[in-house]
Amino acid sequence: MPWTPPLEADALTTLLSKVQQWTPFDGNALLDDVGAVLDDVVPPKEDLDVLAQRLRGHLMQLVNIAVTAEAGDKDPEADRLIRQAHTVRAEAMPDDHRRAVGHLRRLGWTVNELLERLVAANCLREAA
User: Fold this and answer.
1) Most distant pair of Cα atoms in the chain: their distance
2) What gap in Å lies between CA 31 and CA 25, rounded to an integer?
3) Which of 25, 43, 107, 110 is the 20 to 30 A CA-CA neighbour of 9?
4) pLDDT value at position 127?
């Protein structure tokens, strides 16, 4: 049965807004950001907030993919990583540079582990 759009203007406006806000999954950008925070070279202080924002976005996308694919229902490890993603994503960025880098690295590890789990569960193809 073909999809028919909703007839109500409010529903169409909401749908349009969601489509306009959608960002396609970019595995290369994800791997670049994870690499930037997990590298031996510490990112400069002025880049920390931008990297944190991007990593949180990657986590949100991966969690949405996992939930849509019901990965957490099928795989206890995926469920644990989804919960971990929610926790680390909600944490505020520390003011102290050393702690902020530690927070970024936790974000990066969580992104990387969830990506690997989703690839292993056939929810995603490898990013690169």
Assistant:
1) 56
2) 12
3) 25
4) 66
| pLDDT reported for residue 19 | 78
Cα–Cα distance, 97 to 124 (Å, whole number): 34
| Class of residue 60 by CB neighbours under 10 A (exposed 0-12, middle 13-18, buried 19+) | middle
For 26-79, the three-class secondary structure string (H helix, E strand, C coil) is CHHHHHHHHHHHHCCCCCCHHHHHHHHHHHHHHHHHHHHHHHHCCHHHHCHHHH
Residues 31-72 pLDDT 10s: 999 999 999 999 999 999 999 999 999 999 999 999 999 988
| Burial of residue 119 (number of CB atoms within 10 Å: 0-12, 13-18, 19+) | middle
Question: Residue 110 carries which DSSP code?
Answer: H
pTM: 0.81
Question: Locate tokens 């990297």: which residue?
Answer: 51
What's the pLDDT score for residue 123?
Answer: 87
